[in-house]
Every structure is written in structure tokens, then in C-alpha cells.
Design brief:
Length: 173
């Protein structure tokens, strides 16, 4: 049985999957570039688990792509998409500042864990909730920023399903 077509098909399928992941990261990065002027409070993104291993995978894939293109003169779509992801886009995505922007927040909820504080953010632009891990050194500044935005009526909880009656919205923070 010849495994060549199966391997080629698997690599093309992986390439398509990584093409989607690459497009998503590129879109996220360009969105960040457009919004970074409106940053209120940001911090660097933490290194993902096994970050060094991901970079090593990128280096190995770089050699593999070079070998397939130059020496074997074959296409390297799948390997190329994986190389782009691990060697370039994953490190680039760490440049995206996590934090608060002028975009506006529909609702928030804090979850305090043993080693981190997580802010659950519900976007007013999309019907979607996201987690935002707030580093301990930025926790007080984040709470202060949110209280100030609520006091300035830039963030509203009334009419969002979070309105629990007559209370000061700043107490939500």
C-alpha cells in the first residue's frame, strides 16, 4: 500500500487548518494595531505553556520547508502554514496588548482564583463573553479604571440583564 497520497492529503488538510488559524491571528493582530491608540490599560500577554517547544517546532518546520522546496522541489503548503504559525504568528500574537480599550464593555464579572484574577467581559459589539486574565500588579488599576468608566457612564449595566434594582453601578466592580 502506498502511503504517499495519504500523507500528502493529511498535510494539505493540516495546511488548510493552519491557514484558518493564521488568518485569524493576522486579523486579530491588525485589529489590535487599529485599536491600540484607544488603549486605557494594557499589559503584555503571558507566554503560553510550552512556548519554547512551539518555537523549536517552528525552527524544525523551517528546515523542513527549505528542504522540500529547494532540495526535493516539492510543494510544502501544509508545512509552510505550520511554519508560519509556529515561527512567526505565535510570537507576533504575544505583542497584542491584553487589557482595556475604549471599545466599551457590556458587562463584567470577576473570578478570583488561587494565583490569578479573571475578568469575564461581555462585549456590547458582539453577543459574546471572553475571559481576561488580569495580572496581580494590574488588579487595582483595572478596578479603578472600571469604577471611573462606570462613574462617567461609559459603562452601563442597566438594561443588560445585570440590573438588579436601585444600586450604584460602581459597586459591580
Amino acid at each position: 500500500m502506498n502511503l504517499q497520497p495519504v500523507l500528502r492529503g493529511t498535510l494539505v488538510l493540516l495546511g488548510v487548518g493552519f491557514l484558518v488559524a493564521n488568518a485569524r491571528l493576522i486579523l486579530e493582530y491588525f485589529t489590535f494595531l487599529r485599536r491600540r491608540r484607544s488603549a486605557l490599560l494594557t499589559w503584555p500577554s503571558p507566554k503560553p505553556p510550552y512556548y519554547g517547544m512551539a518555537l523549536a517546532i517552528g525552527v524544525v518546520l523551517g528546515f523542513l520547508v527549505f528542504y522540500k522546496l529547494v532540495v526535493l522541489r516539492r510543494q510544502a503548503f501544509g508545512e509552510g502554514m505550520m511554519f508560519l504559525y509556529y515561527a512567526y504568528l505565535l510570537p507576533l500574537s504575544r505583542q497584542i496588548g491584553r487589557g482595556f480599550y475604549e471599545e466599551g464593555i457590556w458587562g463584567i464579572s470577576w473570578r478570583e482564583g488561587e494565583h490569578q484574577v479573571t475578568l469575564i467581559v461581555i462585549s456590547r459589539l458582539r453577543n459574546l463573553a471572553r475571559r481576561l486574565v488580569v495580572p496581580g500588579e494590574n488588579y487595582a488599576a483595572a478596578r479603578r479604571l472600571l469604577r471611573d468608566k462606570i462613574a462617567a457612564h461609559a459603562i452601563h449595566f442597566t438594561g443588560t440583564g445585570l440590573d438588579l434594582g436601585g444600586h450604584d453601578e460602581r459597586d459591580e466592580v
